[in-house]
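HOLO CASE FILE
Compound: zinc ion
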Amino acid sequence: MIYIDKRHAQVPAILLTDGATETQNLRDAYDDDNTYFDNKRSYEVFKSSIYGNSEVKNSLIGIQNHKCCFCESRVTHISDGDVEHFRPKAAWLHDTDGLKKPGYFFLAYEWSNLLLSCQACNQRAKGNQFPILNSNIRTTITSTYDCSLENAIFINPSNEDPEISISFFEEIPKGNNYRGRKTIEYLELDRFSLNDARREKLKDLFALKDAIDVLQNEADRERAEDILRRRISEIVSENLQYVSMVKCNFQEYLD
Ligand SMILES: [Zn+2]
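Model generated. Tokens follow.
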């Protein structure tokens, strides 16, 4: 996970117009009736046409270089990506009591709460989970609409430098503190498919590094070539993404 700098980005206009109006409507409805959200489905109260608008999504895609805010996988070459609510809008998952409503509905159209995420991180791993350290405060949030005193456990990559809390040993993520460890655990940032994809990237870099190391000695030029050829041959023969394209371009390395 890396820091996402949204400080200089313009807030998408649709959030300031339609989003602000909808936020006020939701707050009025909840202030009138604290059970307003209890029996409603997410799609009945939230408008994805606003928070998931192309203006919002394209802005996040640009800021995040097409990558998921949590796992850094490139999202947009295989799907549109999800506009993810860091604080879940519809409900939050209690450790033992299941889903609790309302969620952070007043942040549904709030720019600072929106990030671009892959489906694996957003829908399969994070879902409605949003653990906080001082959980008692959750009862006051919907009367003050102020989250500033809430100590979220998840690392928010647009609010803090994630590299302080999460580092890597080779392809495996390691939590440097409690929040880092919990973020990895809840978001499954050490899931097999991610570790596997990161390992592939590392293999190429290690091969290049090994080649550079042996090239320090002119006499080892053949060894360097051997390291690089071996890696190309592995890439061509392995069961990787886009293998058909690779084979068309590197036919001479096929066995
Ligand atoms: Zn992801």
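CASE NOTES: The first helix runs from residue 13 to 32. The chain has a mean pLDDT of 91.
CLOSED: yes
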